[in-house]
Specification:
Oligomer: single chain
Helix content: over 70%
Structural class: mainly alpha
Largest sheet: none
Order of helices and strands: HHH
Strand content: under 5%
Shape: elongated
Number of helices: 3
Radius of gyration: 30 Å
């Protein structure tokens, strides 16, 4: 009887390959972040990028101000 069971399991078709973890996470994300939540997430990311740009501009302006102040003090 065990031989019959073994023969039956060998003849089963192979299972389809499992989706990648990334694909599975994207599918879950699509379900969870439908409509407005997806838009909110995009808006939040746009805000993060804009904050980073402003921070970079502040650093650049500070360097310019320090350079100008250094030249002014050497001129006097």
């Amino acid at each position: 009887m065990q031989a019959a069971h073994t023969a039956r399991t060998r003849s089963l078709p192979s299972l389809p390959s499992l989706p990648s973890v990334t694909g599975a996470l994207r599918a879950v994300e699509t379900l969870l972040l439908a409509g407005g939540q997806r838009t909110a997430r995009r808006n939040a990311w746009a805000s993060v990028l804009e904050d980073r740009r402003r921070a970079k501009d502040r650093v650049e302006a500070q360097r310019v101000m320090e350079a100008v102040a250094g030249r002014a003090s050497r001129a006097t």
